[in-house]
Amino acid sequence: MSVADTSVRLPAEWRDFLALTKPRVMTLVVFTGMCGLLAAPASVDPVIGFTAILCIALGAGAAGALNQWYEADIDAAMKRTAARPLPAGRMDRQSALHFGVGVAAFSVILMGLAVNAVAAAILAVSILFYVLIYTVWLKRRTPQNIVIGGAAGAFPPLIGWAAATGQVALLPFLLFCTVFLWTPPHFWALALFVETDYANAGVPMLPVVAGERTTRNQIGLYTVPMAVAAIAPWPLGLTGAVYGWSALVLTAVFGVLAAQVAFRHTHANDAMVPEKRLFRFSLLYLALIFAAVVIDRWIA
Ligand code: HEM
Ligand SMILES: CC(C)=CCC/C(C)=C/CC/C(C)=C/COP(=O)(O)OP(=O)(O)O
Protein backbone atom coordinates (compact mmCIF):
# COMPACT_ATOMS: atom_id res chain seq x y z
CA MET A 1 0.00 0.00 0.00
CA SER A 2 1.43 3.39 -0.90
CA VAL A 3 1.80 6.10 1.74
CA ALA A 4 -0.99 8.09 0.10
CA ASP A 5 -3.40 5.14 0.17
CA THR A 6 -5.17 5.36 3.50
CA SER A 7 -8.14 3.16 2.59
CA VAL A 8 -8.80 0.20 4.87
CA ARG A 9 -8.25 -3.01 2.93
CA LEU A 10 -9.65 -6.34 4.10
CA PRO A 11 -7.49 -9.41 3.44
CA ALA A 12 -8.53 -11.00 0.12
CA GLU A 13 -10.05 -14.06 1.82
CA TRP A 14 -12.25 -11.94 4.09
CA ARG A 15 -13.38 -9.89 1.12
CA ASP A 16 -14.51 -13.09 -0.58
CA PHE A 17 -16.52 -14.19 2.46
CA LEU A 18 -18.09 -10.73 2.53
CA ALA A 19 -18.92 -11.04 -1.19
CA LEU A 20 -20.70 -14.32 -0.43
CA THR A 21 -23.19 -12.40 1.70
CA LYS A 22 -24.30 -10.16 -1.23
CA PRO A 23 -23.67 -7.09 0.94
CA ARG A 24 -25.16 -4.45 -1.38
CA VAL A 25 -28.53 -6.15 -1.80
CA MET A 26 -28.65 -7.16 1.84
CA THR A 27 -28.14 -3.58 3.04
CA LEU A 28 -31.68 -2.71 1.93
CA VAL A 29 -33.04 -6.01 3.28
CA VAL A 30 -31.54 -5.20 6.69
CA PHE A 31 -32.77 -1.60 6.49
CA THR A 32 -36.38 -2.80 6.08
CA GLY A 33 -35.89 -5.06 9.11
CA MET A 34 -34.49 -2.19 11.15
CA CYS A 35 -37.42 0.03 10.17
CA GLY A 36 -39.85 -2.74 11.16
CA LEU A 37 -38.21 -2.73 14.57
CA LEU A 38 -38.15 1.06 14.93
CA ALA A 39 -41.77 1.48 13.80
CA ALA A 40 -43.10 -1.00 16.37
CA PRO A 41 -45.02 0.43 19.32
CA ALA A 42 -42.54 -0.73 21.95
CA SER A 43 -39.46 0.72 23.56
CA VAL A 44 -36.65 -1.65 22.80
CA ASP A 45 -33.49 -1.95 24.85
CA PRO A 46 -30.76 -0.62 22.51
CA VAL A 47 -28.58 -3.71 23.02
CA ILE A 48 -31.49 -6.04 22.20
CA GLY A 49 -32.42 -3.88 19.20
CA PHE A 50 -28.85 -3.88 17.90
CA THR A 51 -28.62 -7.66 18.40
CA ALA A 52 -31.86 -8.19 16.47
CA ILE A 53 -30.59 -6.12 13.51
CA LEU A 54 -27.24 -7.92 13.64
CA CYS A 55 -29.08 -11.27 13.53
CA ILE A 56 -31.12 -10.17 10.48
CA ALA A 57 -27.88 -9.08 8.76
CA LEU A 58 -26.12 -12.34 9.61
CA GLY A 59 -29.13 -14.46 8.58
CA ALA A 60 -29.58 -12.61 5.29
CA GLY A 61 -25.83 -12.79 4.57
CA ALA A 62 -25.76 -16.51 5.34
CA ALA A 63 -28.73 -17.07 3.04
CA GLY A 64 -26.84 -15.20 0.30
CA ALA A 65 -23.80 -17.44 0.88
CA LEU A 66 -25.92 -20.62 0.65
CA ASN A 67 -27.51 -19.26 -2.53
CA GLN A 68 -24.05 -18.80 -4.04
CA TRP A 69 -22.94 -22.23 -2.80
CA TYR A 70 -25.86 -23.84 -4.62
CA GLU A 71 -25.71 -21.90 -7.86
CA ALA A 72 -22.01 -21.58 -8.64
CA ASP A 73 -22.75 -23.19 -12.03
CA ILE A 74 -25.34 -20.53 -12.98
CA ASP A 75 -23.14 -17.73 -11.65
CA ALA A 76 -20.24 -18.98 -13.79
CA ALA A 77 -22.40 -18.64 -16.92
CA MET A 78 -23.39 -15.00 -16.32
CA LYS A 79 -21.13 -12.00 -16.88
CA ARG A 80 -22.72 -10.15 -13.92
CA THR A 81 -21.88 -12.95 -11.48
CA ALA A 82 -18.88 -14.77 -12.99
CA ALA A 83 -16.39 -12.92 -10.77
CA ARG A 84 -18.04 -14.13 -7.53
CA PRO A 85 -15.66 -16.12 -5.29
CA LEU A 86 -16.96 -19.61 -6.23
CA PRO A 87 -17.29 -19.35 -10.03
CA ALA A 88 -13.99 -17.45 -10.17
CA GLY A 89 -12.32 -20.34 -8.31
CA ARG A 90 -11.11 -18.23 -5.37
CA MET A 91 -13.03 -20.30 -2.81
CA ASP A 92 -14.03 -23.95 -2.55
CA ARG A 93 -17.70 -24.88 -2.23
CA GLN A 94 -17.16 -26.65 1.10
CA SER A 95 -15.96 -23.42 2.76
CA ALA A 96 -18.99 -21.52 1.42
CA LEU A 97 -21.34 -24.24 2.69
CA HIS A 98 -19.76 -24.32 6.17
CA PHE A 99 -19.80 -20.52 6.37
CA GLY A 100 -23.45 -20.32 5.25
CA VAL A 101 -24.77 -23.06 7.54
CA GLY A 102 -22.68 -21.87 10.50
CA VAL A 103 -23.67 -18.21 10.27
CA ALA A 104 -27.34 -19.06 9.55
CA ALA A 105 -27.54 -21.31 12.64
CA PHE A 106 -25.70 -18.74 14.76
CA SER A 107 -28.06 -15.91 13.69
CA VAL A 108 -31.22 -17.88 14.50
CA ILE A 109 -29.92 -19.21 17.82
CA LEU A 110 -28.68 -15.77 18.91
CA MET A 111 -32.03 -14.21 17.91
CA GLY A 112 -33.87 -16.89 19.93
CA LEU A 113 -31.69 -16.55 23.02
CA ALA A 114 -31.13 -12.78 23.08
CA VAL A 115 -34.32 -11.43 21.48
CA ASN A 116 -37.32 -13.74 21.27
CA ALA A 117 -38.61 -16.98 19.75
CA VAL A 118 -41.08 -15.35 17.32
CA ALA A 119 -38.37 -13.23 15.65
CA ALA A 120 -36.04 -16.27 15.57
CA ALA A 121 -38.73 -18.44 13.97
CA ILE A 122 -39.51 -15.89 11.22
CA LEU A 123 -35.77 -15.41 10.59
CA ALA A 124 -35.37 -19.19 10.20
CA VAL A 125 -38.35 -19.32 7.81
CA SER A 126 -36.93 -16.52 5.65
CA ILE A 127 -33.50 -18.15 5.38
CA LEU A 128 -35.09 -21.52 4.50
CA PHE A 129 -37.46 -19.81 2.07
CA TYR A 130 -34.66 -18.07 0.16
CA VAL A 131 -32.38 -21.11 0.09
CA LEU A 132 -34.79 -24.02 -0.33
CA ILE A 133 -37.96 -22.60 -1.93
CA TYR A 134 -36.38 -19.93 -4.14
CA THR A 135 -32.82 -21.08 -4.88
CA VAL A 136 -33.12 -24.88 -4.87
CA TRP A 137 -36.71 -25.40 -5.93
CA LEU A 138 -38.17 -22.56 -8.00
CA LYS A 139 -35.37 -20.54 -9.60
CA ARG A 140 -34.42 -23.14 -12.22
CA ARG A 141 -37.97 -24.40 -12.78
CA THR A 142 -40.48 -21.62 -13.29
CA PRO A 143 -40.69 -17.98 -14.34
CA GLN A 144 -42.86 -17.54 -11.22
CA ASN A 145 -39.65 -18.02 -9.16
CA ILE A 146 -39.52 -14.33 -8.27
CA VAL A 147 -43.18 -14.05 -7.33
CA ILE A 148 -43.23 -16.93 -4.84
CA GLY A 149 -39.56 -16.97 -3.83
CA GLY A 150 -39.55 -13.21 -3.44
CA ALA A 151 -41.49 -13.63 -0.19
CA ALA A 152 -38.16 -14.45 1.47
CA GLY A 153 -36.95 -10.88 1.09
CA ALA A 154 -40.24 -9.52 2.43
CA PHE A 155 -39.96 -11.09 5.89
CA PRO A 156 -37.46 -8.69 7.53
CA PRO A 157 -40.04 -6.00 8.51
CA LEU A 158 -42.01 -8.74 10.28
CA ILE A 159 -38.82 -9.98 11.95
CA GLY A 160 -37.93 -6.47 13.14
CA TRP A 161 -41.45 -5.84 14.46
CA ALA A 162 -41.53 -9.25 16.19
CA ALA A 163 -38.12 -8.54 17.73
CA ALA A 164 -39.58 -5.40 19.34
CA THR A 165 -43.00 -6.71 20.35
CA GLY A 166 -42.83 -10.51 20.41
CA GLN A 167 -45.68 -10.72 17.89
CA VAL A 168 -46.79 -9.77 14.40
CA ALA A 169 -49.47 -7.23 13.49
CA LEU A 170 -51.34 -5.77 10.53
CA LEU A 171 -48.88 -2.90 9.82
CA PRO A 172 -45.78 -5.12 9.42
CA PHE A 173 -47.94 -7.56 7.46
CA LEU A 174 -48.80 -4.75 5.01
CA LEU A 175 -45.10 -3.87 4.83
CA PHE A 176 -44.43 -7.53 4.04
CA CYS A 177 -47.05 -7.32 1.26
CA THR A 178 -45.47 -4.12 -0.07
CA VAL A 179 -42.02 -5.73 -0.42
CA PHE A 180 -43.56 -8.97 -1.72
CA LEU A 181 -45.47 -7.13 -4.49
CA TRP A 182 -42.57 -4.72 -5.13
CA THR A 183 -40.16 -7.57 -5.89
CA PRO A 184 -41.56 -8.54 -9.33
CA PRO A 185 -41.37 -4.99 -10.82
CA HIS A 186 -37.97 -4.49 -9.13
CA PHE A 187 -36.51 -7.64 -10.55
CA TRP A 188 -38.26 -7.83 -13.93
CA ALA A 189 -37.21 -4.26 -14.77
CA LEU A 190 -33.63 -5.44 -14.24
CA ALA A 191 -34.25 -8.71 -16.09
CA LEU A 192 -35.35 -6.72 -19.15
CA PHE A 193 -31.88 -5.22 -19.51
CA VAL A 194 -29.80 -8.26 -18.44
CA GLU A 195 -32.10 -10.72 -20.23
CA THR A 196 -29.43 -12.40 -22.35
CA ASP A 197 -27.40 -13.23 -19.27
CA TYR A 198 -30.19 -15.34 -17.77
CA ALA A 199 -30.86 -17.00 -21.11
CA ASN A 200 -27.19 -18.02 -21.31
CA ALA A 201 -27.40 -19.59 -17.86
CA GLY A 202 -30.63 -21.45 -18.66
CA VAL A 203 -32.56 -19.68 -15.88
CA PRO A 204 -36.26 -19.43 -16.83
CA MET A 205 -36.72 -15.78 -15.91
CA LEU A 206 -39.94 -14.27 -17.28
CA PRO A 207 -38.43 -12.30 -20.22
CA VAL A 208 -36.54 -15.42 -21.32
CA VAL A 209 -39.56 -17.73 -21.18
CA ALA A 210 -42.58 -15.54 -21.86
CA GLY A 211 -40.98 -12.67 -23.75
CA GLU A 212 -40.67 -8.97 -23.29
CA ARG A 213 -44.35 -8.07 -23.85
CA THR A 214 -45.60 -10.37 -21.07
CA THR A 215 -42.88 -9.13 -18.73
CA ARG A 216 -43.90 -5.52 -19.31
CA ASN A 217 -47.57 -6.40 -18.68
CA GLN A 218 -46.67 -8.22 -15.47
CA ILE A 219 -44.62 -5.27 -14.21
CA GLY A 220 -47.70 -3.08 -14.68
CA LEU A 221 -49.95 -5.70 -13.11
CA TYR A 222 -47.95 -6.11 -9.89
CA THR A 223 -47.53 -2.37 -9.44
CA VAL A 224 -51.28 -1.97 -8.79
CA PRO A 225 -51.60 -4.23 -5.71
CA MET A 226 -48.18 -2.99 -4.55
CA ALA A 227 -49.55 0.54 -4.54
CA VAL A 228 -52.63 -0.59 -2.57
CA ALA A 229 -50.47 -2.38 0.04
CA ALA A 230 -48.10 0.59 0.36
CA ILE A 231 -50.84 3.19 0.80
CA ALA A 232 -53.30 1.07 2.84
CA PRO A 233 -51.72 1.70 6.29
CA TRP A 234 -52.87 5.34 6.14
CA PRO A 235 -56.65 4.90 5.49
CA LEU A 236 -56.62 1.95 7.89
CA GLY A 237 -55.38 4.30 10.62
CA LEU A 238 -52.16 2.34 11.18
CA THR A 239 -49.97 5.33 10.31
CA GLY A 240 -50.42 9.08 10.16
CA ALA A 241 -50.44 11.61 7.34
CA VAL A 242 -46.63 11.87 7.12
CA TYR A 243 -46.46 8.28 5.99
CA GLY A 244 -49.67 8.62 3.99
CA TRP A 245 -48.51 11.57 1.88
CA SER A 246 -45.02 10.11 1.46
CA ALA A 247 -46.49 6.80 0.30
CA LEU A 248 -48.89 8.56 -2.07
CA VAL A 249 -46.20 10.70 -3.73
CA LEU A 250 -43.56 7.95 -3.91
CA THR A 251 -46.06 5.41 -5.21
CA ALA A 252 -47.34 7.87 -7.81
CA VAL A 253 -43.77 8.29 -9.13
CA PHE A 254 -43.29 4.51 -9.07
CA GLY A 255 -46.58 4.12 -10.94
CA VAL A 256 -45.56 6.57 -13.67
CA LEU A 257 -42.17 4.89 -14.16
CA ALA A 258 -43.77 1.42 -14.17
CA ALA A 259 -46.41 2.58 -16.68
CA GLN A 260 -43.65 3.90 -18.96
CA VAL A 261 -42.11 0.44 -18.93
CA ALA A 262 -45.42 -1.45 -19.15
CA PHE A 263 -46.77 0.49 -22.14
CA ARG A 264 -43.46 0.74 -24.00
CA HIS A 265 -42.96 -0.89 -27.38
CA THR A 266 -39.32 -1.37 -28.25
CA HIS A 267 -37.43 -2.24 -31.40
CA ALA A 268 -34.20 -4.19 -31.65
CA ASN A 269 -31.23 -2.25 -30.22
CA ASP A 270 -33.41 0.32 -28.41
CA ALA A 271 -31.69 1.45 -25.19
CA MET A 272 -33.48 0.24 -22.06
CA VAL A 273 -33.51 3.64 -20.37
CA PRO A 274 -37.00 3.54 -18.75
CA GLU A 275 -36.31 0.01 -17.48
CA LYS A 276 -33.03 1.07 -15.86
CA ARG A 277 -34.79 4.11 -14.38
CA LEU A 278 -37.56 1.95 -12.87
CA PHE A 279 -35.02 -0.48 -11.41
CA ARG A 280 -32.98 2.31 -9.82
CA PHE A 281 -36.07 4.08 -8.49
CA SER A 282 -37.41 0.80 -7.07
CA LEU A 283 -34.47 0.80 -4.62
CA LEU A 284 -34.97 4.42 -3.59
CA TYR A 285 -38.74 3.86 -3.32
CA LEU A 286 -38.45 1.00 -0.85
CA ALA A 287 -35.85 2.79 1.26
CA LEU A 288 -37.98 5.96 1.46
CA ILE A 289 -41.25 4.14 2.16
CA PHE A 290 -39.63 2.38 5.11
CA ALA A 291 -37.94 5.54 6.34
CA ALA A 292 -41.36 7.23 6.19
CA VAL A 293 -42.97 4.59 8.44
CA VAL A 294 -40.34 5.25 11.10
CA ILE A 295 -40.46 9.04 10.84
CA ASP A 296 -44.26 8.90 10.98
CA ARG A 297 -44.10 6.80 14.16
CA TRP A 298 -41.53 9.07 15.79
CA ILE A 299 -43.38 12.32 15.20
CA ALA A 300 -46.81 10.87 16.04
C1 HEM B 1 -36.33 -12.89 -5.37
C2 HEM B 1 -36.24 -11.59 -5.18
C3 HEM B 1 -35.17 -10.71 -5.76
C4 HEM B 1 -34.37 -10.91 -6.84
C5 HEM B 1 -34.33 -12.11 -7.76
C6 HEM B 1 -33.50 -9.77 -6.94
C7 HEM B 1 -32.51 -9.64 -7.88
C8 HEM B 1 -31.62 -8.62 -7.94
C9 HEM B 1 -30.53 -8.57 -8.86
C10 HEM B 1 -30.19 -9.66 -9.86
C11 HEM B 1 -29.87 -7.43 -8.64
C12 HEM B 1 -28.66 -6.95 -9.46
C13 HEM B 1 -27.44 -6.70 -8.83
C14 HEM B 1 -26.89 -7.59 -7.80
O1 HEM B 1 -26.91 -8.85 -7.89
O2 HEM B 1 -26.33 -7.01 -6.83
C15 HEM B 1 -30.54 -6.75 -7.57
C16 HEM B 1 -30.14 -5.56 -7.04
C17 HEM B 1 -30.60 -5.08 -5.86
N1 HEM B 1 -31.63 -5.59 -5.11
FE1 HEM B 1 -32.83 -7.12 -5.63
N2 HEM B 1 -33.77 -8.89 -5.94
C18 HEM B 1 -34.77 -9.43 -5.19
C19 HEM B 1 -35.32 -8.90 -4.06
C20 HEM B 1 -34.78 -7.83 -3.40
C21 HEM B 1 -35.20 -7.39 -2.11
C22 HEM B 1 -36.31 -8.04 -1.29
C23 HEM B 1 -34.42 -6.33 -1.79
C24 HEM B 1 -34.44 -5.47 -0.58
C25 HEM B 1 -35.43 -5.35 0.24
C26 HEM B 1 -33.51 -6.10 -2.90
C27 HEM B 1 -32.58 -5.11 -2.94
C28 HEM B 1 -31.70 -4.89 -3.96
C29 HEM B 1 -30.68 -3.85 -3.96
C30 HEM B 1 -30.41 -2.83 -2.87
C31 HEM B 1 -30.00 -3.97 -5.17
C32 HEM B 1 -28.85 -3.07 -5.69
C33 HEM B 1 -27.55 -3.70 -5.37
C34 HEM B 1 -26.38 -2.91 -5.94
O3 HEM B 1 -26.41 -1.69 -5.88
O4 HEM B 1 -25.46 -3.56 -6.43
N3 HEM B 1 -33.77 -7.02 -3.85
N4 HEM B 1 -31.62 -7.49 -7.18
C1 LIG C 1 -33.56 -12.31 6.35
C2 LIG C 1 -33.34 -13.07 5.13
C3 LIG C 1 -32.89 -14.46 5.24
C4 LIG C 1 -33.48 -12.48 3.96
C5 LIG C 1 -33.27 -13.13 2.68
C6 LIG C 1 -32.94 -12.02 1.77
C7 LIG C 1 -33.45 -12.19 0.41
C8 LIG C 1 -34.38 -13.24 0.06
C9 LIG C 1 -33.09 -11.34 -0.47
C10 LIG C 1 -33.56 -11.47 -1.83
C11 LIG C 1 -32.74 -10.60 -2.65
C12 LIG C 1 -31.72 -11.27 -3.46
C13 LIG C 1 -30.35 -11.44 -2.90
C14 LIG C 1 -32.02 -11.65 -4.65
C15 LIG C 1 -31.02 -12.20 -5.55
O1 LIG C 1 -31.65 -13.11 -6.36
P1 LIG C 1 -30.76 -14.20 -7.02
O2 LIG C 1 -30.20 -15.03 -5.94
O3 LIG C 1 -31.56 -14.91 -8.03
O4 LIG C 1 -29.68 -13.27 -7.70
P2 LIG C 1 -28.32 -13.57 -8.40
O5 LIG C 1 -28.64 -13.86 -9.82
O6 LIG C 1 -27.59 -12.27 -8.21
O7 LIG C 1 -27.66 -14.71 -7.68
UniProtKB/TrEMBL annotation:
Pfam families according to UniProt: UbiA
Gene3D superfamilies: UbiA prenyltransferase
GO molecular function, one term: protoheme IX farnesyltransferase activity
CC annotations in GO: plasma membrane
Keywords: Cell membrane, Heme biosynthesis, Membrane, Transferase, Transmembrane, Transmembrane helix
Coiled coil (UniProt feature): none
Pathway in which this enzyme or protein is active: Porphyrin-containing compound metabolism; heme O biosynthesis; heme O from protoheme: step 1/1
InterPro entries noted in UniProt: Protohaem_IX_farnesylTrfase (IPR006369), UbiA_prenyltransferase (IPR000537), UbiA_prenylTrfase_CS (IPR030470), UbiA_sf (IPR044878)
Main location: membrane
Subcellular location, record wording: Cell membrane
GO BP terms, alphabetized: heme O biosynthetic process
Topological category with respect to the lipid bilayer: Multi-pass membrane protein
This enzyme's EC code(s): 2.5.1.141
Membrane-spanning parts: 25-42, 48-70, 96-113, 119-137, 158-181, 219-236, 242-263, 283-299
Catalysed reactions, as listed in the record: heme b + (2E,6E)-farnesyl diphosphate + H2O = Fe(II)-heme o + diphosphate
NCBIfam families per UniProt: cyoE_ctaB, PRK04375.1-2
Function summary: Converts heme B (protoheme IX) to heme O by substitution of the vinyl group on carbon 2 of heme B porphyrin ring with a hydroxyethyl farnesyl side group.
Additional observations: Carbon 2 of the heme B porphyrin ring is defined according to the Fischer nomenclature.
Family per similarity comment: Belongs to the UbiA prenyltransferase family. Protoheme IX farnesyltransferase subfamily.
Name the record gives this protein: Protoheme IX farnesyltransferase
Species lineage: Bacteria, Pseudomonadati, Pseudomonadota, Alphaproteobacteria, Sphingomonadales
